[in-house]
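Quiz preparation item.
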């Protein structure tokens, strides 16, 4: 009788194929979520500081928001707010970049340009423009070069990220809006980068730069909006990060 039951017992103890299947589930990345929130806080903090420089004459001085460059605030009474806003932007961008990397969204090309952006925007805070205008001293030239690189680096990083995920259903909408903001921001740095480059080549004052300050402020607003969108994207990806776990074994499988 035992020999007759042996094949049946052997058959019952074998695991069905369905028990080895895996099922997707959510496994939030808490560190990436925290980094994304830190980026949000840094960008809001920077925006508040910049708004205070524009709205409070005791801090922002007499800089004309239509014609004066943002870097004029480096010589205003609230110069520390200007430096702190740029530093917060750089740190927040780094936090969002790490969050995007942890969620697997950040490509190598996008990561490279995001690092360039973080370093360049920090150098803008460290090296001030020449008070007499133009870029005469070494510090003024470093400020000008860092400004130009920063203006180009963030849109390039955003375009690279959007291109990588534009066809992925979970991130198609984020990629679309990231590309739109990046493309919109690109032309805004040309009105002051091109005249500066031409003036350096042809001589100071050859090419006028009217309403440069207003254009730069519009560009800064678009780039802050772009950074905020990347922070939202990173937080969503960290919250909805999929993982795979073994499916539950059916009852009576012998386990």
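Solution:
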């Amino acid at each position: 009788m035992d020999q007759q039951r042996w094949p049946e017992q052997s058959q019952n103890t074998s695991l069905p194929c369905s028990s080895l299947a895996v099922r997707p589930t959510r496994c939030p990345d808490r560190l990436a979520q925290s980094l994304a929130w830190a980026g949000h806080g840094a960008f809001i903090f920077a925006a508040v500081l910049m708004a205070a420089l524009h709205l409070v004459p005791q801090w922002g001085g007499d800089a004309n928001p239509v014609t004066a460059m943002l870097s004029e605030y480096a010589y205003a009474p609230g110069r520390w707010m200007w430096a702190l806003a740029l530093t917060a932007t750089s740190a927040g961008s780094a936090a969002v970049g790490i969050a995007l990397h942890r969620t697997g969204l950040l490509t190598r090309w996008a990561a490279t340009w995001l690092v360039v952006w973080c370093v360049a925007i920090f150098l803008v805070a460290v090296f001030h423009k020449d008070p007499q205008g133009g870029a005469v001293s070494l510090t003024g030239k470093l400020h000008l070069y860092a400004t130009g690189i920063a203006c180009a680096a963030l849109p390039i990083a955003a375009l690279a990220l959007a291109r990588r995920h534009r066809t992925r259903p979970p991130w198609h909408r984020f990629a679309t809006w990231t590309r739109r903001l990046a493309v919109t921001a690109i032309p805004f740095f040309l009105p002051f980068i091109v005249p500066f480059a031409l003036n350096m080549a042809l001589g100071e004052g050859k090419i006028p730069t009217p309403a440069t300050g207003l254009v730069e402020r519009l560009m800064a607003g678009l780039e802050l909006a772009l950074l905020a969108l990347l922070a939202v994207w990173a937080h969503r990806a960290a919250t909805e990060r999929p993982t795979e776990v073994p499916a539950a074994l059916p009852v009576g499988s012998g386990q």
